[in-house]
């Protein structure tokens, strides 16, 4: 191994531990005297708890306690209202926890939870998102800025356009469902709280618990050494960690709460459904003259969250007239939140489907149409791009996929009962970065230790941070250790918004560069206690950039549609990305193909719905909510083009955790149109819709 560790396909350092069972997850901390908790979810969609009868539950063997809204320990009012659990009898949505059973074993806790009798005063509820819902309003902001961006006269430009597409696309609610459910083990020692929790950001968990339990942060330890996925749902603390801490305080025992799979959708956020109207106007040469992207989505009555699906139209294509706008309807639904590429994933499904419809209307190749509308600067702001290689991604993808030989006519390829089609779509995801701290220590034996409270949620964060360190220190990779996932380490931001590696890596790079300089100024080995340098990128990583910074990509899909069964199978999926420097070829590829696989699920199988009568998600476990299995993903390939962008961070990297899911569903949907000649505008493309 040479000193150029960056970009190398280094293996995940914790891989062996994970596959051998040695890696411990939050529910696996078997502290002495540990008890287990099980939640009681509300069975009404709106109303209040009028009584909780715990007698039958408490009479069961091994049951220690049942916490209710009446007797659970009090919390300070959280900033995030979804964490105010067992604090009030109000029921804002079905599945909201209304009691918590604690027992010696998970089985006893489950039996006790089922024996708890809850009486409610029900109130009318509404969980159905419709366009033109009377309660819809225009929010001020979405997470990336203004909720409504407009320039030119989009209505007039659209009305005057020579060629028009006007279509409505629908994406249902979707669930994150990480392999490891949300789980926490909590333990009080006097007024010291220790939690082992499954989180994308332990630094936030500690500060939120400190506020809720009114403790100094130095009285709280949060450990999240191994995390079995999150996809956004573990980006903020969830009720599991609060309930485990409440139960541990109430019983005086360490308590583990592994939130039951079927109850997760109601308490950990979901991708809110979107109804997206796309209007594209173009001249006969295929130059866009108007882009109108209008999104209606839902939020809960607990807090406002807006799935910012229209923001992609501010980034993608040159147009003299643009409207990108959101409306949100508060319903009696569980609170939506982040799910991998929140906004971009459903937004690019709609936009890239509409662009395909426009290509078809014009009789233009869909790759060429995109190239023709490549903007010189970011359409929504006019800022220059720090780097943008979408065209190169499209061209390289087309070359490798064999796009040139494609007959553009729909229904032109048939194999017995199968109709075969190919489709393309673009991908984009913003570059986000946050300040972080990190320390780098040199030891007399010639090794180095990097420390920061980063979260390795399965991405290979430990490994890539060691690569960043080895590169900055100019030493072989095997001389660098990484310690992450503990709150006593230097504070670091969350693994979210595809910003983890850029944010943490920046601080690691700075600490290591400074350490290397210090070591170079001295002769002889470091003293016994080592030499340590601390870096803090506050003021750098959060500095406003004059550039529009986004990653881009292009997806190509080949599908076979069975005209007898209505089944759609993806035969080939190719993604080519431009995301700055790729810091680890192996784990990077895994991020891209993982995202694409999730996009395949979004296109073909993943579907949740809200039952209007009872107000709950009807597809709440993995038997009903279908994620892709290996057999669904026969030939999936991700690659990237070299992109040298000096306006990012010292590593030159953009985020790669989310862009893989963006656009995949559109490429598959466009391939299904090419196969069948039928335009389906509602996901997923299940046989009942296809037939
Ligand atoms: Mo990601 S949805 O920002 O964790």
TrEMBL record:
Endoplasmic reticulum listed as a keyword: no
Keywords of the record: Molybdenum, Oxidoreductase
Keyword Transferase: no
Domain Aldehyde oxidase/xanthine dehydrogenase a/b hammerhead: 20-124
SUPFAM superfamilies to which the protein is assigned, alphabetical: CO dehydrogenase molybdoprotein N-domain-like (SSF54665), Molybdenum cofactor-binding domain (SSF56003)
Any Pfam family matching the protein: MoCoBD_2
Record InterPro entries: Ald_Oxase/Xan_DH_a/b, Ald_Oxase/Xan_DH_a/b_sf, Ald_Oxase/xanthine_DH-like, AldOxase/xan_DH_MoCoBD1, AldOxase/xan_DH_MoCoBD2, AldOxase/xan_DH_Mopterin-bd_sf
Residues covered by region (Disordered): 1-21
Superkingdom of source: Bacteria
PANTHER family tied to this protein: ALDEHYDE OXIDASE 1-RELATED, XANTHINE DEHYDROGENASE
Protein name: Xanthine dehydrogenase family protein molybdopterin-binding subunit
Species name: Streptomyces pyxinicus
């Amino acid at each position: 191994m040479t000193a150029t560790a960056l970009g190398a396909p280094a293996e995940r350092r914790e891989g062996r531990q994970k596959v051998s069972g040695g890696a411990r997850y939050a529910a696996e901390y078997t502290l002495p005297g540990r008890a287990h908790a099980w939640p009681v979810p509300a069975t009404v969609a709106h109303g209040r708890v009028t009584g909780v009868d715990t007698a039958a539950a408490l009479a069961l063997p091994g049951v220690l306690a049942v916490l209710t809204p009446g007797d659970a320990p009090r919390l300070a009012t959280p900033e995030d209202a979804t964490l105010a659990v067992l604090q009030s009898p109000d029921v804002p949505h079905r599945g909201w926890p209304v009691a918590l059973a604690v027992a010696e074993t998970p089985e006893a806790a489950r039996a006790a939870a089922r024996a708890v009798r809850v009486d409610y005063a029900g109130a009318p509820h509404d969980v159905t998102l419709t366009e033109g819902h009377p309660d819809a309003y225009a929010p001020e902001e979405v997470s990336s800025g203004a909720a409504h961006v407009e320039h030119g006269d989009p209505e007039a430009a659209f009305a005057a356009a020579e060629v028009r597409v006007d279509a409505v696309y629908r994406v249902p609610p979707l669930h994150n469902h990480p392999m490891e459910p949300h789980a926490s083990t909590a333990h009080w020692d006097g007024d010291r709280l220790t939690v082992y929790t499954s989180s994308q950001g332990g630094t936030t968990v500690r500060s939120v618990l400190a506020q809720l339990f009114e403790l100094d942060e130095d009285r709280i330890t949060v450990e999240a050494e191994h995390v079995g996925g999150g996809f956004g749902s573990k980006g903020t603390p969830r009720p599991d960690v609060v309930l485990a801490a409440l139960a541990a305080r109430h019983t005086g025992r360490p308590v583990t709460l592994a939130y039951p799979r079927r109850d997760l959708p109601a308490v950990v956020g979901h991708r809110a459904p979107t109804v997206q109207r796309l209007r594209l106007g173009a001249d006969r040469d295929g130059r866009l003259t108007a882009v109108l992207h209008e999104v209606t989505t839902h939020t809960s009555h607990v807090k406002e969250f807006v799935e910012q699906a229209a923001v992609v139209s501010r980034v993608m294509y040159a147009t003299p007239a643009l409207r990108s706008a959101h409306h949100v309807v508060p319903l009696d639904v569980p609170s939506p939140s982040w799910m991998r590429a929140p906004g971009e994933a459903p937004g690019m499904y709609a936009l890239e489907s509409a662009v395909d419809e426009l290509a078809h209307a014009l009789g233009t190749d869909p790759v060429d149409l995109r190239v023709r509308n490549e903007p010189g600067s970011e359409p929504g702001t006019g800022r220059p791009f720090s780097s943008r290689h979408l065209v190169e991604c499209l061209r390289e993808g087309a070359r490798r996929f064999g796009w040139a030989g494609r007959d553009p006519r729909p229904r032109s390829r048939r194999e017995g009962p199968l109709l075969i089609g190919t489709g393309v779509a673009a991908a984009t995801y913003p570059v986000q970065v946050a300040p972080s701290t990190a320390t780098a220590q040199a030891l007399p034996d010639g090794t180095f230790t990097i420390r920061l409270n980063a979260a390795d949620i399965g991405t290979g964060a430990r490994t890539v941070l060691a690569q960043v360190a080895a590169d900055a220190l100019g030493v072989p990779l095997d001389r660098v250790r990484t310690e992450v996932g503990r709150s006593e380490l230097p504070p670091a931001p969350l693994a979210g918004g595809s910003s983890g590696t850029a944010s943490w890596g920046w601080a690691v790079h700075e600490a290591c560069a400074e350490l290397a300089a210090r070591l170079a100024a001295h002769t002889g080995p470091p003293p016994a206690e080592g030499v340590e340098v601390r870096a803090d990128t506050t003021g750098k990583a959060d500095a406003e950039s004059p550039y529009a910074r986004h990653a881009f990509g292009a997806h190509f899909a080949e599908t076979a549609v069975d005209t007898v069964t209505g089944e759609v199978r993806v035969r080939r999926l190719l993604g080519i990305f431009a995301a700055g420097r790729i810091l680890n070829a192996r784990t990077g590829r895994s991020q891209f193909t993982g995202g694409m696989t999730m996009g395949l699920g979004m296109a073909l199988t993943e579907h949740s719905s809200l039952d209007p009568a009872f107000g709950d998600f009807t597809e709440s476990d993995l038997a009903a909510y279908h994620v892709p299995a290996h057999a669904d993903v026969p030939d999936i390939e991700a690659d990237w083009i070299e992109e040298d962008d000096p306006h990012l961070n010292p590593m030159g990297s953009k985020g790669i955790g989310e862009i893989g899911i963006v656009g995949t569903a559109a490429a598959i949907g466009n391939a299904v149109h090419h196969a069948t000649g039928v335009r389906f505008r509602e996901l997923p493309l299940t046989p009942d819709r296809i037939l």
